[in-house]
Amino acid sequence: MLERTIPSLITVTAALVWASCGDNPVEPTGPPGITILAGADVADSVDARPTQELVVEVRTSAGRLARHALVRFAGLPTDSGPYPRTTVRVGRIDEQPNRAVAVDTTDGSGRAGVVVALGSVAGPGGVEVTVPELEFADTARYTIQPGHAVDVVSQPADTVVYQQRSFMLRVSVRDRYGNGRSDPVTFVAESAAASVSPVGTVTSEEFGRALVRIGDAAGHADTTWVSVIPEGRIAATTPSGIVIVDLDGYNRRYVPGVAAATWLDWNLTGDALVFAAPDNDYSWLYVTTTTGPPHRLISASTGLLSEFWPQFSGDGRWIYFSGRTNYQNQEIWRVRSDGSSPGLVGPAAGYANLDADPAPSRDGSQVAYVSNRCCSPDWGLFLLHTQTGVIDSLSPGAVSPRWSPGDSLIAFVFDGVFVIRPDGQGLRRLSAPGQNYYQELDWSPTGEWVIARGPSGRLDLIRVADGLILTLPYFTNLDRPASQP
459 with 342, same domain? Predict the structure, then answer.
């Protein structure tokens, strides 16, 4: 019995082994890790959805197919922000590709896949593919191209430039997501104030306001405004002190040691400033070289309770200002630029008399100022002859008088910017009717322009000859400008 059984078992075993080798051959191995089989290296426009799914094959470190392995597909972020968009969106095969992350499990062939859609940001994109349990990672790469053009954008939208200077416009044709395209554009300048080259180089020609139009073949267009302005530099007050800046917006710096200031003026050589600074309910005059800390101009021994509206005389030896001897008045005073010899110049003020904002002529013979003695609560413009003490009335309404460099005109603010001759004749409005201006203005060193804070809250240059107004768009927080000599 035993002898018959053993040969039979051997035969059956051999047959089973032979059958096993014939029906299930040993599985071939391949490169370990993640292999991207299809769906990558696609170049298409924003929001495009490729017809080919992203398919990967996963093998173990031994090169054998990794079946039933979890595969994670994650679109690469567009930036490093806390909630960035993804360069490519993904979704399971039976879903829409609108997720940042999708997960699939490898099948019996070690394969997994997702559907993809390109994102909204043009440039390189990708999907990071990871198999956490095997610590494998790879990236499928994509190139995202801009979509159809929807507009043209020219920068800067509004700028200033000195005469006979050039700059290049920054122009982009954009798709609906703001991605730039390389479409050609054309440039046209519509004013003699500036010209523009075929490649967008703007050259300032003469003082004025120029409009440059930019457009593409599809009819999309934008504009850039250019104001051609005279060269110059100003000091001006800000909520946090005094700023010195060129009229084109460059070389801006704060005067050190000044936390707050109201009225200010340059000395004759343009290397020092006098200003009034509030100290709770009081205001005092200070002088600064603009690079070092300011110092108090007048000692407390004068008995003045406050000091306002300082302005240098034409020769720079004196500083005129408005002084308060009691809490309800103001008078016209002056002091030497070294702080010595303070004294009353104008008439003594009684209770509630306000003589303010004194502006000496360049030759020192006259002082323009405003006073409420004529028309309280309003202010009128007056002219004090320093040698005789005679006072002339020039205008029933005014603030902020300033003499032109040649003493031929006095500029002032009322419900706009005006000029008048010192004889009281030739009153003329420089600004447009209905456009109110802030207190304090100044003349350019040449006397051709007046600068003041306009109704937009920005500084305006106003040409005295014809009333041309050029707004300085960068200066949104500057007030009480003073032109540096």
Answer: yes
Using H for helix, E for strand and C for coil, what is the string for 146-187? CCCCCEEEEECCEEEEECCCEEECEEEEECCCCCEECCCEEE
Measure the N-to-C terminal CA separation of the chain; round to a whole number of Å: 130
Burial bucket for residue 153 (CB in 10 Å: 0-12, 13-18, 19+): middle
| pLDDT tens by residue, the chain, 485 residues | 333 333 333 333 333 333 444 455 678 899 999 999 999 999 999 999 999 999 999 999 999 999 999 999 999 999 887 888 899 999 999 999 999 999 999 999 999 999 999 999 999 999 999 999 999 999 999 999 999 999 999 999 999 999 999 999 999 999 999 999 999 999 999 999 999 999 999 999 999 999 999 999 999 999 999 999 999 999 999 999 999 999 999 999 999 999 999 999 999 999 999 999 987 668 999 999 999 899 999 987 788 999 999 999 999 999 999 999 887 899 999 999 999 999 999 999 988 899 999 999 998 899 999 999 988 778 899 999 999 999 999 999 999 999 999 999 999 999 899 999 999 999 999 999 999 999 999 999 999 999 999 999 999 999 999 999 999 998 889 999 999 99
The reply to whether 312 falls in a domain is yes
Q: How far apart are CA 223 and CA 50, in angstroms?
A: 38
Contacts of 401 (CB under 8 A, 6+ apart): 357, 359, 368, 369, 370, 381, 410, 411, 412
Q: Kindly state whether residues 432 and 473 are assigned to the same domain.
A: yes
Classify the C-alpha dihedral 53-58-63-67 as positive or negative: negative
In this structure, which amino acid lies at residue 341? S
Q: Whole domain around residue 126: which residue ranges?
A: 33-145
Same domain, 355 and 466: yes
The CATH number assigned to the domain holding 343 equals 2.120.10.30
Same domain, 185 and 240: no
Three-state DSSP state, 123: strand
Q: Are residues 223 and 89 in the same domain?
A: no
* 111 occurs within a structural domain: yes
Residue 5 maps to a domain: no
On whether the CB atoms of residues 274 and 360 are closer than 8 A, the answer is no
Alpha-carbon gap, residue 47 to 121, rounded angstroms: 9
Q: Two tokens at 421?
A: 């001759």
pTM over 0.85: no
Question: Do residues 353 and 283 share a domain?
Answer: yes
What separation in angstroms does the CA of 361 have from each of 81, 85, 269, 404?
60, 64, 17, 8
In a domain, 2, yes or no: no
CATH at 77: 2.60.40.10
Domain count, the chain: 3
Question: Does residue 255 sit in the same domain as residue 218?
Answer: no
Same-domain check for residues 86 and 159: no
